[in-house]
Amino acid sequence: MKSYLMPVVIVVAVLIAATAVFAQPGERNRLRARPGKPGLRPEMLLKVADEIGLTDEQREQIKDTWASHKKSTIKLKSAKEEEQVDLETELASDSPNMKKVKSLILDIAEKNGELKYMEIEVMQDIKSILTDEQLEKLKNLREEFREKRQERIQEMRPGGPRMMPRK
Average pLDDT of the chain? Predict the structure, then answer.
């Protein structure tokens, strides 16, 4: 009976590790600016371009920088997805090669790290396009947005202001 316990424990541990590797933040969270960091997502910047005073040249630079970033991540994301499929296939086999499983998990984690670094790098590149004044305006806009969002959340919570009943 004990001879079956160790393989079961190993398979469960690998499945838990694989689940963590495959966990991806949702698209909605990826586009949201993070608290404490300047909101430098191109989608956000271009929506508030007039409010922060972006010039046409800055808009084009931001679009070009973002397009270049997206192109450079395509191959890396594709390679990572192929490794994820390889890992799933290996784990689905009757007797997975644990050295291969470990290697694939480490390769996927390395690619995730590279993608994160590239994301930070493009945000810094975009930040360098903006003036200090524009960065300050952007920071203020984000704070206003955060306060309005908090007010809406408070209104929806029990004990907060009640919505008018429908007639």
Answer: 80
